[in-house]
């Protein structure tokens, strides 16, 4: 599907009605991006825990999380982002009042159209409105597309952390930026 950079995109808070579509999109994007790095059994176990409809419902209703969606002109969910309050990493000890940008997922058909940036900007504005001073994230060190986006958005590497899916141990870069 060819998408124009002028395709109107709407941004809104996720509702429980979105859970199934978010589960499908999260499963698709995670599998496309990371699925080759883990065994099929570990992949399925991770997807069931993180991207089932019930897992997405839990994220939507969790008061410590904010889930925002991007929709196309046909109201299809084409991307989402998740902010998590109260999460931390040891390398963030010198950063006050921070919040985690836990996920930005965009359907591959919409890569390069600015959807990821729109979601990140919206989440940053929400973090600022809620009084957070810094936003942090963990990103797989081999995810060049995400690293490029986060660099353009002003995130800087401050450390590393391990990310486990079954027996597979990957390294995530921890990145942070000021939002005030």
Here the CATH topology equals: Aminopeptidase
CATH architect. name: 3-Layer(aba) Sandwich
Question: Regions with pLDDT < 50 over 5+ consecutive residues?
Answer: 1-5
The level 1 CATH classification is Alpha Beta
Number of DSSP-assigned strands = 7
Mean pLDDT: 91
Q: What order do the helices and strands follow?
A: EHHHEEEHEHEE
Percent of sequence in beta strands: 25-35%
The CATH homologous superfamily is named Gcn5-related N-acetyltransferase (GNAT)
Please name the defining characteristics of this protein.
180 residues, alpha+beta, Aminopeptidase, seven-stranded mixed sheet, 7 strands, 32% strand, globular
Q: In words, what does this structure look like?
A:
- InterPro entries: Acyl_CoA_acyltransferase, Bact_Acetyltransf, GNAT_dom.
- Residues 9-180 form the N-acetyltransferase domain.
- With 180 residues, the chain is an alpha+beta fold.
- It has a single domain (10-87, 94-178), classed as Aminopeptidase (3-Layer(aba) Sandwich), CATH 3.40.630.30.
- The protein contains five helices and seven strands.
- The protein has helices at residues 19-34, 40-51, 53-61, 115-129, 144-152, and strands at 10-13, 65-71, 77-85, 98-106, 134-140, 156-165, 168-178.
- It has a seven-stranded mixed β-sheet with strand order 1-2-3-4-5-7-6, with helices on both faces.
- Strand 4, helix 4 (115-129) and strand 5 (134-140) form a beta-alpha-beta unit.
- Helix 1 packs antiparallel against helix 2 (40-51), helix 1 (19-34) packs across helix 3 and helix 2 runs parallel beside helix 3 (53-61).
- The longest helix is centred in the N-terminal third of the chain and has 16 residues, at 19-34.
- The radius of gyration is 16 Å and the shape is globular.
- The termini are far apart.
- Residues 1-5 have low confidence and may be disordered.
